[in-house]
Amino acid sequence: MAQHADDNAFDQRAGVAELRLATGDPELVPQNQVLTGELPLDRNQAILQAAKQVGAILKRAGHPFALAGSVAVYAHGSTQNLQHDVDFCIRPEDAEAVAQTLREAGLQVFTPPEDWLLKANCLGQQVDIIFELAHQPVTTQMLDRAHELSVDSVFMPVLAPTDLVHSLLSAFSEHHCDFGAVLPIARTLREKVDWDAVREACGDAPMPDAFFYFLERLGVIEPRPKEEQR
Description:
Elements: E1 20-21, H1 43-61, E2 66-68, H2 69-75, E3 85-89, H3 95-104, E4 109-111, E5 117-122, E6 125-130, E7 132-133, E8 136-137, H4 140-144, E9 147-151, E10 154-158, H5 161-170, H6 179-189, H7 195-202, H8 206-217
Parallel strand pairs: 3-6
Antiparallel strand pairs: 1-4, 2-3, 4-5, 5-6, 7-8, 9-10
Helix pairs in contact: 5-6, 5-7
């Protein structure tokens, strides 16, 4: 979720060059009927079902991972609508093993042009398997900070609120700076986030700094003491 690939690129039709199948031949893998069943009519529920399916697959295989993105925000207590996909964080060194596990469960796994994630499809929903957040590789320490939470009755590790908010703010740039989308998340998680740690991690990046000012003026977070302001 920290770095969004072009979602329109996730197209499995023949002839699309932007995506290529990851190592392995999915045609040799028996399709898991649970993963190809009838979709829930509600898009939010479809995304939750995909998150639960993939989370359960990764748990059974024993892979270190954490749920991220809008579904992670939902797991931490948000009631907002879910976004367009499901995001999971894994360590870079686990990418090949995770891809193999997903293929063995009947999912096709794709390698997009971006070199910080893999893409898969579950129940018709896009699943991003991310191994770089906030412009840094996902680490064991980050995954160890994850919270074990219920995601629509399925327990799985969910990215800690501080790491989650840091990843969202680090994604801000001149080309992607949607404060309106992140504001309700900040409001929901504000009591759970170590804002000093997020400020320190974001450093002097102008877009996160502008968002902090925005949050202070709206009363979402406490202003920094004057002696700490630049």
